[in-house]
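user: Please review this fold.
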Amino acid sequence: MSAESGSATFYNYKLLKRITIPKALIGGLSTLPFIWLLAEIIFISWTSIFTFLLALFIILWIQFVITRSVLIIISHSYKKRWHFKTRMPWIGYLPEQFVSYSTFRRTQHFTTWIGTCIIAILIPWSPVSFVMALLFWHFWFMAPRLIILLRFRRQPHNGIIKLTPQEASYYMP
């Protein structure tokens, strides 16, 4: 409520689409790293355990740097809205509140493509297990975000989205 006018300002958003995240999908996503690690140990080497864990932290850092850089370039008011999340399926540097769809789309596209290019650049100098782990973690973190972008692609591009642990919602202001 505004002290000067004595009246409250209400913002109304119209929900256009809601995508519920099934618990089975979250469970499947949770087991995928163990399956991938086991496959790397069997087909490459037992030392894949170390490169797998190292790749996890490197990809999180790469994605954070790319997303934050894109946000600095395209948006000046991102600091209060974007935080590092650790809850499935949204792990990484993501919006905490409502965020414009175009901002979310741009950050995720740049993070996907630039992250993939960085991994491709590392191929000649890195062990196979490390490159495979980098690719796995990169696409594992990006998959839920890209699925949401795919599901929202037919919506107007001037809307806003909100991510919660159970769902992703698309609103029009």
About this structure: The chain has four helices and six strands. Residues 48-74 form the longest helix (27 residues). Confidence is low (pLDDT under 50) at residues 1-10.
